[in-house]
Write a structure and sequence with these properties.
TAXi_N, about 450 residues, Cathepsin D, subunit A, domain 1, about 30% strand, six-stranded mixed beta barrel, about 15% helix, alpha+beta, Aspartic_peptidase_AS, Pepsin-like_plant, 2 domains, protease, 6 helices
Length: about 450
């Protein structure tokens, strides 16, 4: 009961932490850069497409394990555990302070706080740019420990410093963490002169650790897009608690767009379907949906759980299904495709078919459609959403994985969302989908 009360309290007071935005009231857009895009500072040109997708699969499983672990924690643990801080797939650029300082940070729908590394730093992970120095920003100030933003942090996740400042601590599932001072400063999204928020609450981290050190040098923090009261979307004031995106395929020479605002983020036109957005007090900040079943061709398998049995996540590449559900899906896919999956598929894949077997099967495209049946919304997945072709092995491997544990947490990953505009309406309590050419959105 106590955890439910705390969560309701956070939701009710989330708007009180908002900034008065100088950005246009219709909303604004920022670029999302996939870590494997040639435009990304993390891009490794020596990797083959097969190696990139295998690495993405490994990150997906690691993130899934952390999410499942996070969900099983007590409702009010000593510290709240979020997904892996270094396992996210998309980078976002913004500017902080006066004068504005450019930052690249990981964008994550699975956590809420926005934070960057700051001086003075007791322990920081390596980054290619200087740490943010709050003493050089004329608009910076610390948040007091008795202020409302400080009280919006989960219980036992904040404390009062010697000078009355609000100290925070966030832990992530891969043992990464950030400790620092809850602060307020001007933040610009997109460029130095537009989308200006003069008073944005963020974490100024001076004791930080990212487990994935080698790849973190270009990353200076994290931008939380979750449902918590201190997330980016919850601090947008009159713009509204709504955002949408349209993911491009991995490796594209273009950036995906992330739109914010009641007007700009709303998707319109034919083919829009919506499903209820479910929040859980035991896992605040995560976006749960209800998956009623999965159709393969003309056949359908139903899930046994309801009330929010899968989360939608931007930071996980693969779609992850509860172990028993994945087993049913695999059997149904073999039956409808008319071919047997290969034994001992290359790690980390779990369901692969020989390319020649698929080509020689009697099934046509209409017979092998895969449709995710969410409450009120059917999402059809095409070949790009479903398969990765491993050239070295001549295999078509599904971009789906089972959870390690029987009751693990299912995830609707970002690869399944490619080719769709996806809208998160926090106040309306729904997520909407519409097929789209994401190069135009």
């Amino acid at each position: 009961m106590r955890s439910s009360f705390v969560y309701c309290f956070l939701v009710l007071f989330s708007l009180s932490t908002t900034s008065i935005a100088e950005a246009t009231k219709s909303g604004f857009s920022v670029d999302l850069i996939h870590r494997d895009s040639p435009l990304s500072p993390l891009y490794d040109p020596s990797l083959t497409p097969s190696q990139r997708i295998k690495n993405a699969a490994m990150r997906s499983m690691a993130r899934c394990d952390r999410l499942s672990h996070s969900r099983k924690e007590n409702d009010l643990p000593k510290t709240i555990t979020f997904p892996d801080a270094s396992m996210n797939e998309y980078l976002m650029r913004f500017f902080i302070g006066t004068p504005p300082v450019e930052r690249f940070a990981l964008a994550d729908t699975g956590s809420d706080l926005i934070w960057v590394q700051c001086t003075p730093c007791k322990k920081c992970f390596p980054q290619n740019t200087p740490l943010f120095d709050p003493t050089k920003s004329s608009t910076y100030r610390r948040v007091g420990c008795d202020s409302q933003p400080c009280t919006l942090l989960p219980q036992n996740q904040h404390s009062c410093g010697n000078s009355g400042e609000c100290k925070y601590r966030y832990e992530y599932g891969d043992n990464s963490h950030t400790d620092g001072i809850l602060s307020v400063d001007k933040i610009n999204f997109g460029s130095k002169d537009v989308n200006v928020f003069p008073k944005f609450t963020f974490g100024c981290g001076n004791l930080n650790n990212l487990t994935d050190v080698d790849e973190s040098k270009v990353n200076t923090g994290l931008v939380g897009l979750g449902a918590g009261p201190l997330s980016l979307v919850s601090q947008l004031g009159d713009i509204g608690r709504k955002f949408s995106y349209c993911f491009l395929p991995i490796g594209s020479n273009a950036t995906s767009k992330l739109n914010f605002g009641n007007e700009l983020a709303t998707i319109k036109g034919k083919g829009v379907v919506s499903t209820p957005l479910i929040f859980k007090s035991s896992a605040p900040g995560f976006y749960f949906l209800n998956l009623e079943g999965i159709g393969v061709g003309k056949k359908m398998m139903k899930t046994s759980k309801s009330g929010g049995n899968i989360i939608i996540d931007s930071g996980t590449t693969f779609t992850v299904l509860e172990k028993s559900v994945f087993k049913m899906f695999s059997s149904l896919a073999e039956e409808v495709f008319g071919v047997k999956a290969v034994k001992n598929p290359p790690q980390p894949f779990n369901l692969c078919f020989r390319d020649e077997d698929i080509k020689n099967s009697d099934s046509d495209d209409d017979d092998t459609d895969v449709v995710f049946h969410f409450t009120g919304a059917k999402i059809r997945l095409n070949t790009l959403n479903l398969f990765s072709f491993l050239l070295d092995d001549n295999l078509l491997c599904m971009l789906m994985q089972p959870t390690k544990e029987e009751d693990g947490l299912s995830i609707f990953g970002n690869q399944a969302q490619i080719g769709y505009q996806v809208e998160y309406d926090l106040d309306g309590g729904k997520i909407s989908f519409a097929p789209a050419d994401c190069f135009k959105h």
